Amino acid sequence: MKTMTTVACAALLSLGTAAMAPADTSDKRIALSNNYAGNSWRQAMLRSWEKVTGEAVEEGVVAEADAFTTAENQVTEQAAQIQNLILQGYDAIVLNAASPEGLNGAVREACDAGVVVVSFDGIVTEPCAWRIAVDFKQMGKDEVLYLADRLDGGDLLEIRGLAGVFVDDAISAGIHEGVEETGKFEIAGSVHGNWAQDVAQKAVAGILPSLPEIAAVVTQGGDGYGAAQAFKAAGRPMPIIVMGNRHDELTWWKEQKDANGYETMSVSIAPGVSTLAFWVAQQVLDGADVPKDLTVPFLRIDQENLEEALERTEPGGVANVNYTLEDAKEVIGGGAM
Amino acid sequence: MTATLNLLKQPWVWAWVGALGVWGATAAFTGGQGAGEVLRAALTFGAFYVIVALGQMFVVTLGPGNVDLSIPACMTLAGTVAMKTMAGAAAMIPVGLLIALGIGLVVGTVNYALIRLLRIPPIIATLSSSFIYQSAAIWWNRGLRVKPPAALADFTTAKIAGVPVIALCVAVLAVAGHVLLTRTLYGRGVVAIGQNPRAAHLAGVGVERIRAATYILSATLAGLCGYLLAGFSGGAALNMGEEYLLSSIAVVVIGGTSVAGGFANVPGLWGAALFLFLLVTMLNTFGAGAGVRMVLTGLIIIGVIVAASGTRRRT
């Protein structure tokens, strides 16, 4: 179905744009401004960018597509970086921002200088920029809805992300909304796992002894394997742990599936969303009419496509999708992927 | 009676009092359910804090301005390179350990060279060099998680009579650290330098030699911790060392070691490490929100430090 719509869309679009593609952006330069590179998700994001934009440059779609990452994950540092990119004359800046509001001044400057700004993942609120947002709240809610299908009720353990980051609040809000709506579950405990296996493992190991039997663990990604380790170490019955598309999580799930038919689901954002942002920026430069607010779909893995997803995931990495120009056009057109 | 009073004068007592207090509060809240389990978890995770804090303690004791901020990056680099080299093969476990320790040795040497040869203050030197180590770790494996050999994972998670093996090993390490600090020329030298480097120099202490050894010791212990933590948590991750920066310093200070240097103790490290873990566990168990939890963590840590430094002034 997905392929069919993609093909249909591509065919339609190519009819309309055949005359102008691909020359219009061939002299344009696009920069990636990235605030952090210190985890596997961000590394995969940068690799995807390298691969897809490298091919695009080779094919002459754009002239340059360079990636820049700040060292300290600081708003001031990234603001200075954006100002440098404006001075260097880039036509578009694709931005994963350190703060939703903190960079608005620098983004405004870029817009005033005629630079197209496309923010993704870590989006900015400045109205002149494009936003490729993730409906994190829905992601949290989907986890609970899945569990409601599987279970009659019970106690949940919630593993949250990094305190003070809006993504953490959004996913958690979705989880709590889901719990309220389904009316089946109780959140027996909540810990912060900082989206890291070892931190999650430590936090879960600490709180677990004080908890009643846990039916399921709702997570935010990057913490499921650590939770499983903690349950195993404590000798507790293994609950349904929602996974976050990391290779070690999927591998553990596969082992359990083969050993005892363990069932769960896994959901996260594909790091390749950077390449979707790249194509959106290219489309804006190309003169396409692109709405300011776009939504990127989640990458969800279920019992049926676990093996396939695991095969496509690099050992030690994150399940990923590299987006194409056609995907971008589909998202711009409001179609579901 | 005098014995109790003498004990209360020890600066490290307060960390233990704090640890027992929060443990008791957690147990009371849950009606005693799982108190033993919590303690077991605290011993396991506290062990990792103690390894890095031991090195940090010697560095801090050297006197004002001495601190090792490259511990997280060193842990990440050692863990990453060791895991990738072992590639899950049990036969390579000793090689991996040697590599991790070797990386610590090199990191410590580089740190000291920056401090001594380029005359960069230790805070700046270790912070800036940590960017290099972190980048080297990224470059080495691009953030991919390599699983540790099964035998290493089993060792780091094993228990003897309910006590985590890793905690026993680190307890032995701590005793060695205690002897090193209180019974050897090196340890007395570190304390002497912290109290007055010029007086130590005039008294014939090899100030620079000891400073070099201390930075190398700290980095080597960080390398060891990175190796064990990667084995314990199922692989090295790029952000695995992050929370060990502040906690290594916090454990040292809560344990009653003077931030101004010249005054250190090892028993406090274990007390403080257990205290830090149990504190977060207690607030998690109470169901406190993240904001409340951080405020309380800050307040309680300040309380323990004030109590500990109060006793030191009286002695």
Automatic annotation (TrEMBL), chain A:
Cite the InterPro entries for this sequence.
Answer: Peripla_BP_I (IPR028082), SBP_2_dom (IPR025997)
Ranges for domain Periplasmic binding protein come to 30-288
What Gene3D superfamilies does this protein map onto? 3.40.50.2300
SUPFAM superfamilies documented for this protein: Periplasmic binding protein-like I
Q: Where in the cell is it found?
A: Cell envelope
Indicate what this protein is called per its UniProt record: Ribose transport system substrate-binding protein
Coiled-coil segments on the chain, per record:
none
| Pfam families attached to this UniProt entry | Peripla_BP_4
Q: What is its main location?
A: other
Keywords associated with the record: Signal
> Is Electron transport one of the keywords UniProt gives this record?
no
Q: Which superkingdom does the taxonomy of this entry point to? A: Bacteria
Q: Which CDD domains match?
A: PBP1_ABC_sugar_binding-like
Family that this chain belongs to: Belongs to the bacterial solute-binding protein 2 family.
User: Any signal peptide, and if so, which residues?
Assistant: 1-23
TrEMBL record, chain B:
The alphabetized UniProt keywords are: Cell inner membrane, Cell membrane, Membrane, Transmembrane, Transmembrane helix, Transport
Q: Where in the cell is it found?
A: Cell membrane
**Pfam families the UniProt entry points to:** BPD_transp_2 (PF02653)
Among InterPro entries, the record links this protein to: ABC_transp_permease (IPR001851)
Q: Which domain of life is it from?
A: Bacteria
Spell out the CDD domains in the cross-references. Answer: TM_PBP1_transp_AraH_like
Q: Where are the transmembrane segments?
A: 12-30, 42-65, 85-108, 120-140, 160-181, 215-238, 244-264, 294-311
Subunit record text: The complex is composed of two ATP-binding proteins (LsrA), two transmembrane proteins (LsrC and LsrD) and a solute-binding protein (LsrB).
Q: What does this protein do?
A: Part of the ABC transporter complex LsrABCD involved in autoinducer 2 (AI-2) import. Probably responsible for the translocation of the substrate across the membrane.
The name this protein carries in UniProt is Autoinducer 2 import system permease protein LsrD
Q: What is the lineage of its organism?
A: Bacteria, Pseudomonadati, Pseudomonadota, Alphaproteobacteria, Rhodobacterales
